[in-house]
Amino acid sequence: MKISLKEMAKRLSLSPAAVSKALNDYPDISLATKNLVKSYAKKVGYKANSQASFLRSQKTKTIGVIIPDITNPFFNKILKTIMTLAQKNNYSIILGNSKESFSLEEKLVNQFLQQKVDGILMSLANDTSQYKHLENILANDTVLVLFDKVAKLINCSKVFVDDKDGGFKATEHLIKKGCTKIAHFRGGLNPQNSIDRYLGYREALSVNKISFDPNKVLITSSGSIEQGYILAKKLYESGIEIDGLFCITDMVALGAIRFFKEQKIDIPNEISVIGFSNTMAGNLVYPSLSTIDQKASKIGAEAVRLFLSEEKMLKTENRLENQSLVLKTTLIKRESTQRI
Amino acid sequence: MKISLKEMAKRLSLSPAAVSKALNDYPDISLATKNLVKSYAKKVGYKANSQASFLRSQKTKTIGVIIPDITNPFFNKILKTIMTLAQKNNYSIILGNSKESFSLEEKLVNQFLQQKVDGILMSLANDTSQYKHLENILANDTVLVLFDKVAKLINCSKVFVDDKDGGFKATEHLIKKGCTKIAHFRGGLNPQNSIDRYLGYREALSVNKISFDPNKVLITSSGSIEQGYILAKKLYESGIEIDGLFCITDMVALGAIRFFKEQKIDIPNEISVIGFSNTMAGNLVYPSLSTIDQKASKIGAEAVRLFLSEEKMLKTENRLENQSLVLKTTLIKRESTQRI
DNA sequence: CTGAAAGCGCTTACAG
DNA sequence: CTGAAAGCGCTTACAG
How many angstroms from the chain centroid is the CA of residue A190? Predict the structure, then answer.
């Protein structure tokens, strides 16, 4: 059934070397031989054993992708684009789901290195705060592209969103709509995007001469709908008055809105709410959710583009360029901030 | 920097064979040697080159997974479970997104076979109607597990949902709520799940002595929100009266509901709507969407379990068992069918 | 333009 | 308990 290159060579009375070269279109093989070999290979359904080719050529044509949460629609969109472009360039994808866990992330990196992937494209887990595993990637002459959740200290290629600017836009939008008592449900203290969105919030307040009130900032680590609901309840029961709310993610915003609706609070007229990410769900609910779009597929496309360019650089000049790309966000205005 | 097994052997004054066996815990190596080798390997950060091990041992510890739409939350949940269990059993995942295209699916299968994956777990694309590529997997002594969208004609392991029963449950639920003029937005004519849900709809009508009206059945191929909206509009403008609607997916149902709401039609009292899949979005909208739950993570878990058991069977008895597993669905009652 | 030889980095019978 | 040798299935200098 299965036939090896050697066996094909024997049947065609050629050397294995000639057959290999013919299949791989080496210029020093006659067209006649190439045609003979290729048509025979097609006839018997010959497929080269990738493991063997890889071992010899030291290139696996494989990219390792690590994502913190595979069910998150934002990462999903990024992944989709990465896969489409990888396929187009004849790369396979080995996928890892770190589940926001540093130790799993570390394990996946080691596993991928062992498998000799040509590059690793990854977004860091929330509790990743040391970077030995990333340095290890670079030390192994493997291309590393960080996207979305990146480590600023590591010298590699990066694509990420200007979160501070995004947080600023979201908050300023609320201010323009007339909100003056604006709360913020932020993420954990560690992840860079959580910090930056918070800083954007602070800056928008400051630029607009609205004094900052730490009691209006609550922390959600999970970023889930349930947490949004719970934080909204906590804020409401604490008696702190607000007329605007900027949430770190759409999910948190949807949870908060659900609580406010249960309290018969008019969204957006009593409290305007804005999320972050432009998840599809935000467009399905009533009131539809204003949000900040992060251009997921652009992030994915740039990550692959950077990988390909680094890979080429490594091959031709044996060095990396380490480009950083910062993408701007876009404000999406919907009903949850459309005051009458 | 990087060190090979051979180099390690030299430094430890051992043979490469002994080092390899020590690392892989062969029983015929002394504990002292094992400890020596392992601790040294750890010290210098030695990691076996997977490509080389694979080539020699003919096992890649890799599973190829092919999914028709990677952004679909249902497949996503399945994928998540598959990945968690694969990781737990020390398998890597190579992922392919067929985008519902037969030719891409075929290409991915060939690519995976070339990479000598130990098994392929896949859900078929909607326009897959010939199965040579599947037979090819089996002919290559590679385990094949089909899930959700399966080919009944192919003799391999399968996990899928009893779609006919699901369609029956959905339709009967509408009937129990008092609906007598029930429309169905079905999927394409080819996919098995589309056919089966439709058959369940027919059977529920027939069992309950409601005459079938072909004008109340419309076809959506994409299964998108937009199509749901368009079909609802088409039905509405055609003047055909209905008081219940069963949609092939939640997305189609959400699109239909959006149109009906724009027409100020009372959901559920004028028209009750039920979807299929139990997508998260269905729980976020108002009215929340009644639906049929397909137990995505159960499907994923069973797919991996079947793979592992087939893999073992192949190793020990050199044959496959080809088990088929049919999972029952569950009715989820929410507001979109909760008549007052 | 084609072939003989070496080798990628491991593992696996086999011998002792 | 350890080692020498062969080999997994390819590709790549090198020679002619």
Answer: 18
